[in-house]
Amino acid sequence: ETGVTQTPRHLVMGMTNKKSLKCEQHLGHNAMYWYKQSAKKPLELMFVYSLEERVENNSVPSRFSPECPNSSHLFLHLHTLQPEDSALYLCASSQVYPRDPYNEQFFGPGTRLTVL
Amino acid sequence: AQSVTQLDSHVSVSEGTPVLLRCNYSSSYSPSLFWYVQHPNKGLQLLLKYTSAATLVKGINGFEAEFKKSETSFHLTKPSAHMSDAAEYFCVVSGHTDKLIFGTGTRLQVFP
Question: Which of A39, A74, B24, B96 counts the most CB atoms within 10 A of its CB?
Fold first, then answer.
């Protein structure tokens, strides 16, 4: 496996369910990110982890709970979500954080989440 | 504060004709600028980035972009479109903070 992988690729859940999204990076990076991509809206940064420590939380509701057990893995735990949380959730990684402005982030393929 | 505006939500071209995807930015600082592409059911892939070394930046798959400070633009071009170029393209800016600010995207359709 190379790059950034995400599982599952698709997830359908009810509003009372609890589920988790998983991200794994095989690039030796020290920073990982969660983004939300909704239709017709710019990507929204949700969380940033650097060296397994959360360094940014962009006013995300508490029904989204991130976890970074090591620098290669990132989880997003979901509970009591709302239908408006349906979106594509993208994970990314970069070499360091604070990020060198000229270093790019590498993205996974995303998890398409549908909340019924 | 930084922002980025992608002027077209959809662009349609015929295969073999030039591609122009427009992007304007606003930044109080010397910006870093990127173009990412997203194919269906795939993550975002970096096409090219502006690092202030040269105003004309060449990327992968024959794409290039020119940084024009006077016009605050960073338009993406390709001389000849290919069917495989059909995707969503995002212009991205970052400045003195570490946040990437994404545009709303331009969907490129390529007709045979």
Answer: A74
